[in-house]
Every structure is written in structure tokens, then in C-alpha cells.
């Protein structure tokens, strides 16, 4: 399901002294079956942008097309439920939204709201808990007994349980240890390849962007300042530094090497690309020396 | 939620903003007490003038005050209707069963309208021009004499300032949790009362749990920074009574004297 933004603006508390324009004339398209990464400084409007993806916020100007549904400022709050089933959002620190007595009930909450019967929902809960890498025995426990990382997985399972067509992730790995971070990102990457759905990912981890994203949107002060493939966006290291954004460590390393006279055909994004490029370089040099 | 003005603070640099929060608190109380002694229009005129001059001195947009009164208009209207329908005395215009509309009833209703409006204006002025932390400092300072009767002033002040500090945080958190549950298919606006009450559970439980966690973290952090209870601490924010406070007190005292003089009319 593709999502199209046409000249979207959003203003918080319009008409009060606390008025704040968070989005300014945003136009972009999130393609079907793609992984789109949204990066930008804190307060650049990323989270506001996210909430437009399933009409939690409605634009104050312009239109958002979610699949075949058009959302404008006049769209009524009724009949948005089917839309929310299609677009699942995992908010920052999603473990804070767990509430049910058992993990099973919490995961089943979403499907039940969208009309699944109790049996169906508990079947889905069983599937989901294995999907996120937790043993089935967890299902009967209280979510508040679990560790932080496990709670995060349960919360993610609760969103996946709705079988969304678009999965929106707001910093899904924030506050996790490196191991947990890798596992969670791997989970989303695999899932996306297997089930062919759309992922929109907000993150400060440029490695994740380089590894998983097809498309990158760079936001600053409520505007899209650049978008394109990760390679195109990360090619301009100096520009990103100016915007106080990072590039993947491999790109940074290559960039520094380039300054010292090392030649790259294109800046590498991942460690393996970097390793290949360096290996190639020495291979060529070896040949010329022979 | 954005419409609620009560308890909001608008940082500006004005005569009223720079006043000592203690004097603002006392004068607001004084104003509210004095207004109940009003019994003729001259007094209301005098008090309205004082209120408007105070608002002007705060440099806050007057429209905000109107917005502050609006949500309470229903309560005011309700009280006025009761007054009009059940008032007795003076000339009777209309009479039916226990209901009657009389000249005194209408006059009382008009008084109530003015009284309510002025009280709301002055209390809105206090909250708009004084940050919550200043209010809690002022309360602590004003409650100090109660220590003589073993009232836990430090503890109450601490609780108050922590509570005020976390109001916006908890509001943000409520918003996030509501959005998260909405994204999971909860429709907050629909259903009968029981269904709606049930929908509050997925908000309330996470909110309580996170408040408990937050309290634990905060207590640990405070202990780690050497907090050992209220007694024997020094203060970072010192309240200072200045000429402008004396001036304001003078104006309000004159108003109070004026009111009691006009009562004799």
C-alpha cells in the first residue's frame, strides 16, 4: 500500500500562543513493498510525519493518500479504523503501552479490536510470540514481570498481530543493547522480505539505514531537505555533517581515508562494502607493483 | 486538550511577571475575598478597573482571558438561571409554582455574573503570569508559620513542586499512550458509557505503571544526589519582596478600603 503526501502542512494548537508549525509543505511518496527511512534532528518533525501515516493526525493543509483513502483536514474521525488496521505503528518505547494481565491478552488486544474472535486472537498471539523470538511460555505471564527487552518484543508483537500492510517504526531499537538492537532490526528485515510489506523507519542509527532502507527522507525544521537512495543521501558527507547528522561508520571511515588520498569509486555504506573496496585497492596495487 | 488555559504559564517580561509570587498569591486571595463584600455597582466598577489595570500591566493578550472564561460560561449561566428562577423579593414579573422572576433575582444574577467573571480573570492572571514552580515556592514560604503546629511544610512543598513538574510530562505520556492504543484499534470517541469507561483501562494502567516506575527512579536519583529530607536545606530560588510588590499591595489595599467605604453608600 503506497502512501502519498501532497503539500502537507501541520500546525499544533493553531490560533493559540502555543501555535507551532511542525510540517511545512511536505510532498513525498512511500512506495509499496519498500523500506523508507526517515532521518533528521530531534524536533525536525519526524514523529509528526509518522502520525500522519495512519491518520492519528490529520493535515491542517494538503492531502495524504493512504492506499485509496484521502485524508484532508476535513476528514471525519469516523471510519478511520480500517485504515489503522492496515498501518501499524510501533511508537518509541512501545513497552510503555502494555496493560493487560497476560502477554497473550495484550497481543490479542489489537486483533480483537479489529473484529477477530477470542480464539482467532489467541492463535495469532501464539504465532506472534514465536515470531518475535520469545518462548510460548511467556504468553501466560504478566507483561510487567518481563525484562525491558522482552517487553519491547511483546509490544512489537502486539502491533504485528494486526497484520498491517504498512509497518511504521519510531526508533524501534532506542535504549536496547547492541545485541538486542541487531536482533530486532534483523527481525524486521527478514519479515519485510518474507511478507512483502512496507516499512517506514525513523532512526538515528545510520547503520540500520544503510543496511535496510531502499529510500531515505531527510527532514529538517519540518521540511524534507533531501530524499533518495541511501547511497545518494550518504554520498554527501559534508552536507550531512552540516545538518548535524551522521553517516554510517564505514562511510565516515572511507571519507577520512579519501581525504588522505585513498580512491573510492563510490563511498561504501556497509562494513562488507568497505572491506571489499579496500581489498580491491590492494589487489590493484599489488598488480601494478608486479 | 489544547484549549485548556487553566494552569498554563505564559512567560513574558512585565510588571506583573516580575512581581514576587507571594504578593501575587496574597493579592489574588484578597481580591477574591473582597469581591464577596460587594453590594452595589460602584464597587464592581472599582474592582473591574483594578482587574483591567492588572491585566494591562501583565502585557498578556486580552483574548487569552476571554478564552479562559469561555469554558466556565456554562457554570456561570447555570447559576444565573437558578438565581433568576428562584429569586424572591422586589417586584415580581412572573410567577408559576415555586418559580418566580423578580427584580432582585435578576439583580442577583447580574451580580453573580460579574463576580464570577472577575474572579476567573484574576485567577487566570495569576496562573498565566506565574510559573508553577514560583507558585509552589510562594506557597512554601507562606505556609512556613504552620511549622509551629508540626505541619510538614517542606514535604508538602516538595510534593507540590514534583507534582507540578510532572503534569506536562504525564500529559505527553497520556497522549502517546492514547495514540498507541488508537493505532491498535481503540476508538475513544464511540460507544455507550460502559464501553467508553472500559476503553480507559488501556490508558490508565500503563500510565499508573509508568508513574510508579518514574517515582522509583526519581527517588533513587534524589537519594543519590544527597537528599535527606527538607530540614537543613538551603534554597536556590530566593523570593525577594521589591518596591513593585509594595506598590501593588498599596493599590489593592486602597481598593479594599474603597470597597468598604462604598458599601456604606
The number of domains of chain A? 2
CATH topology of the largest domain in chain A: Rossmann fold
**SSE sequence of chain A, one letter per element:** EEEHEEHEHHHEHEHEEHHHH
Amount of helix of chain B: 55-70%
What fraction of residues of chain A sit in β-strands? 15-25%
Largest sheet of chain A: 6 strands, mixed
What's the β-strand tally of chain A? 10
Low-confidence stretches of chain A: none
CATH superfamily of the largest domain in chain A: P-loop containing nucleotide triphosphate hydrolases
* Biggest sheet layout of chain B: 2 strands, antiparallel
Mean model confidence by pLDDT of chain B? 86
- Which two chains share the most extensive interface? A-B, 31 and 26 residues
Percent of residues in β-strands of chain B: under 5%
Subunit structure (chain A): Forms a stable energy-coupling factor (ECF) transporter complex composed of 2 membrane-embedded substrate-binding proteins (S component), 2 ATP-binding proteins (A component) and 2 transmembrane proteins (T component).
Function (chain A): ATP-binding (A) component of a common energy-coupling factor (ECF) ABC-transporter complex.
Family (chain A): Belongs to the ABC transporter superfamily. Energy-coupling factor EcfA family.
Subcellular location (chain A): Cell membrane
Give a written overview of the molecule:
Chain A: It is a peripheral membrane protein. Chain A: It is found in: Cell membrane. Chain A: This is Energy-coupling factor transporter ATP-binding protein EcfA2. By secondary structure, chain A is of the alpha/beta class. Chain A has two domains: 3-247, P-loop containing nucleotide triphosphate hydrolases (Rossmann fold); 248-290, no CATH class. Chain A contains eleven helices and ten strands. A six-stranded mixed sheet of chain A has the order 6-7-8-3-9-10, with helices on both faces. In chain A, helix 3 (103-113) runs parallel beside helix 5 and helix 4 crosses helix 5 (148-160). The longest helix of chain A is centred in the last third of the chain and has 19 residues, at 271-289. Chain A is globular and about 70 Å long. Chain B is mainly alpha-helical and 265 residues long. Helix content of chain B is 67%, strand content 3%. Chain B has nine helices and two strands; from the N terminus they run H-H-H-H-E-E-H-H-H-H-H. Chain B has a two-stranded antiparallel sheet with strand order 1-2. In chain B, strand 1 and strand 2 (99-102) form a beta hairpin. In chain B, helix 1 (21-35) packs antiparallel against helix 5 (103-129), helix 2 (41-58) runs antiparallel to helix 9 (243-263) and helix 3 crosses helix 5 (103-129). Chain B is globular. The mean pLDDT of chain B is 86. Chains A and B meet through helix 2, strand 6 and helix 3 of A and helix 7 and helix 8 of B.
Amino acid at each position: 500500500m503506497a502512501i502519498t503526501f501532497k503539500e502537507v502542512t501541520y500546525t499544533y494548537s493553531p490560533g493559540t500562543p502555543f501555535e507551532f508549525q511542525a510540517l511545512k509543505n511536505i510532498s513525498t511518496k512511500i512506495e509499496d513493498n519498500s523500506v523508507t527511512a526517515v532521518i533528521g534532528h530531534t524536533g525536525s518533525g519526524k514523529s509528526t510525519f509518522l502520525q500522519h501515516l495512519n491518520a492519528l493526525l490529520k493535515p491542517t493543509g494538503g492531502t495524504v493518500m493512504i492506499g485509496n483513502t484521502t485524508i484532508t483536514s476535513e476528514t471525519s474521525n469516523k471510519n478511520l479504523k480500517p485504515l489503522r488496521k492496515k498501518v501499524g505503528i510501533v511508537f518509541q518505547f512501545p513497552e510503555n503501552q502494555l496493560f493487560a494481565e497476560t502477554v497473550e491478552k495484550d497481543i490479542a488486544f489489537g486483533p480483537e479490536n479489529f473484529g477477530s474472535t477470542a480464539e482467532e486472537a489467541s492463535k495469532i498471539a501464539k504465532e506472534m510470540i514465536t515470531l518475535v523470538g520469545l518462548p510460548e511460555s511467556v504468553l501466560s505471564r504478566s507483561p510487567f514481570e518481563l525484562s525491558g527487552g522482552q517487553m519491547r518484543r511483546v509490544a512489537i508483537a502486539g502491533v504485528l498481530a494486526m497484520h498491517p500492510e504498512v509497518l511504521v517504526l519510531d526508533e524501534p531499537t532506542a535504549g536496547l543493547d547492541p545485541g538486542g538492537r541487531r536482533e530486532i532490526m534483523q527481525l524486521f528485515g527478514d519479515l519485510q522480505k518474507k511478507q512483502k510489506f512496507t516499512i517506514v523507519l525513523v532512526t538515528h542509527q545510520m547503520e540500520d539505514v544503510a543496511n535496510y532502507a531502499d529510500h531515505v527522507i531527510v527532514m529538517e525544521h519540518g521540511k524534507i531537505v533531501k530524499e533518495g537512495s541511501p547511497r545518494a543521501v550518504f554520498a554527501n558527507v559534508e552536507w550531512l555533517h552540516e545538518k548535524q547528522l551522521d553517516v554510517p561508520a564505514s562511510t565516515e571511515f572511507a571519507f577520512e581515508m579519501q581525504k588522505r588520498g585513498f580512491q573510492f569509486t563510490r563511498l561504501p555504506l556497509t562494513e562488507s562494502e568497505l572491506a571489499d573496496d579496500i581489498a580491491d585497492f590492494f589487489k590493484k596495487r599489488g598488480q601494478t607493483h608486479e | 486538550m489544547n484549549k485548556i488555559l487553566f494552569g498554563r504559564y505564559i512567560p513574558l517580561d512585565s510588571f506583573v511577571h516580575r512581581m514576587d509570587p507571594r504578593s501575587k498569591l496574597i493579592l489574588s486571595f484578597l481580591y477574591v475575598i473582597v469581591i464577596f463584600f460587594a453590594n452595589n455597582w460602584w464597587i464592581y466598577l472599582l474592582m473591574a478597573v483594578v482587574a483591567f489595570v492588572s491585566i494591562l500591566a501583565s502585557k498578556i493578550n486580552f483574548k487569552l482571558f476571554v478564552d479562559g472564561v469561555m469554558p466556565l460560561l456554562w457554570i456561570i449561566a447555570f447559576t444565573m438561571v437558578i438565581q433568576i428562577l428562584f429569586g424572591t423579593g422586589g417586584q415580581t414579573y412572573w410567577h408559576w409554582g415555586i418559580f418566580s422572576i423578580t427584580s432582585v433575582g435578576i439583580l442577583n444574577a447580574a451580580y453573580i455574573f460579574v463576580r464570577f467573571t472577575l474572579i476567573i480573570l484574576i485567577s487566570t492572571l495569576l496562573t498565566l503570569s506565574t510559573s508553577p514552580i514560583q507558585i509552589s515556592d510562594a506557597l512554601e514560604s507562606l505556609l512556613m508559620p504552620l511549622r509551629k503546629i508540626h505541619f510538614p511544610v517542606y514535604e508538602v512543598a516538595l510534593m507540590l513542586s514534583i507534582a507540578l513538574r510532572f503534569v506536562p510530562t504525564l500529559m505527553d505520556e497520556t497522549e502517546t499512550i492514547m495514540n498507541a492504543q488508537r493505532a491498535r484499534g481503540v476508538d475513544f470517541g464511540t460507544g455507550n458509557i460502559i464501553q467508553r469507561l472500559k476503553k480507559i483501562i488501556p490508558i490508565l494502567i500503563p500510565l499508573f505503571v509508568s508513574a510508579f516506575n518514574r517515582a522509583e527512579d526519581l527517588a533513587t536519583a534524589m537519594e543519590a544526589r544527597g537528599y535527606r529530607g527538607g530540614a537543613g536545606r538551603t534554597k536556590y530560588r530566593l523570593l525577594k519582596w521589591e518596591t513593585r510588590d509594595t506598590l501593588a499591595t498599596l493599590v489593592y489595599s486602597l481598593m479594599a478600603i474603597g470597597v468598604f467605604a462604598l458599601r456604606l453608600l
